[in-house]
Amino acid sequence: MNKRRFFRFKSIHTSIAVAFSCLIIGTTLILSYNTYRQSSDSVTENSVQYTNELINQVGTTIETYIDNMKSISSLLYNNGQIRQYLTMTDPHSEVGQSLVNAIESSLQVIVQSRNDISAILFIGSNGAVISDREQSALKSYPELIAQDWYTKAKNDAIYISSSEVEHVYHNEYPWVISMSQQFRGDDRINKTGVLLIDLNYTIINDLCSHIQLGKRGYVFIVNSEGDLVYHPQQQIIHTNLKSEPIKAILASGDGQLSLKENEHEKILSIRTTNFGWKIVGVTYPEELVGNKKKMQLSTVLWGSVCLIIALGISIVLSFTLSRPIKKLEANMKQVEQGNFDIRADITQADEIGKLARSFNVMLVKIKDLMKQIVHEEALLRTSEIKALQSQINPHFLYNTLESIIWMAETNKMREVVKMTMALSKMLRYSIGKGEQEVSVSMEMEHLANYLTVQSMRYTNKFSYAIEVEPELQGCRMLRIMLQPLVENAIYHGIRRMEERGHIRIVGRMVDGVIQITVSDNGLGMDKAKLQGLLGAGPGQGPDSESSKDQGLGVWNVHHRIQLFYGTAYGLSFESEPEEGTTVTLRIPCSELEVKDE
């Protein structure tokens, strides 16, 4: 729940801006990273492919040189003069010497026609030595046959050495690559010889040293035994200041091999020749992307520019989207303060514009409804006040006047004067043009006049008592609130009793609230009838003399109190059948003085 609240903002403008910003930042970072990685990988792939093509070319060229040497060896192997020379018992004889001269001439022609061939030498097991040079330049026979190229040429196999210093001639130590092959004469057991062809090392060196694989990349060649044939830093290799992963290279097939060197990655592109040499191209990925930092800087720069532009657009867009909503919010706050004349001036055609138009329509309808409610409330109060002010209905007047006439006919002049005086005060109080509120003392005086008239009409039918605390006399209350309550007590509680009834009116102050109770010892009522009293409304009975109109006066009093003082005040009832009824009236106390009419 807290995580959800963390991402909630009070302003929709902030929410939209943050959402757009997060989306743009994430997209920009992902695109920038992917662009950089793809560019880097593409450059690396292209460079590795380029390296493969170069080492393939180198391998093809070297294979061509070696094949040429093999062709020369094959040509000499089939030379009849050499075979004849091998079978001679005394190669130093005159016939042998003539054969040597002929063979040497052939070898000289071959060497002079090929600049990649450094020397050709043939040594027989019978002590014969034939070279493309003068015999005096050669080392002795025992020294020659002790060298590796001679001893490793066995079983008619072709031996190709790594780069080495040749020790065939006196005072000459050229770097060469030697190819030696054993020859056999007609006597396949004893009559043998070894042919040596030296390839100029400069051919391999020139071929490989001109290959550029970045600032640090290079090409080297290793034979099948793990000896270096060529390396641009061969002297450093021999002093063990630098090393190459020879074992990994020999164990690996053709392709790429990725290794670590001093925390830097390097890629070895390997190609194996048909005679077992492995040509290795070394490239450094971080150098292949030669302008790696420049690419990173460019990616960051353009990513930042795009990010700033996108964030600016998102802020402007969020402000544009949220501005009409904020405007509508400001209009709503004015409505909260009671200003229903405000209108949302938003004319755009999107959902916010539709919401603004609905808001304006709503305000018009609310204002019309408020006017209607005020008008109906005013009519209701006016009608109720008029109805309440005319509580003395014709039936009551008719009956009271008939009682006065009857008393006059029977010469009860004192009673006539008393009833007429009480009726006059009642009429004057009821139809008076004074204020809606009167003092409690005036309301009690009116109630006493009403009880006087009713007690004289219903002779010896009931007695009454009015007990009001003195502190209530100056308080204010609405006109004619107690008469309907007493009227209900007489007509519906006491009138039909056989014995004499009693009505008691008690007024006191309870916690700052005026509380007046009207109690009778009449017939009472059950719960169903009691609950229906305050549910009665205007128009439910023809007059207050009718039993059908029992709840009308009570409902008027209760509703009038709540309209004037609020719903916290009104009437409450307690009643039991044959036990009587108690009505409690509660209204707030006001200490203002009221002038008597």
From TrEMBL:
Enzyme Commission number(s): 2.7.13.3
Membrane topology: Multi-pass membrane protein
Organism this protein belongs to: Paenibacillus chondroitinus
Cellular localization per UniProt: Cell membrane
Reaction catalysed by this enzyme: ATP + protein L-histidine = ADP + protein N-phospho-L-histidine
Residues in HAMP domain copies: 319-371
Keyword Transport carried by entry: no
Annotated protein name in UniProt: histidine kinase
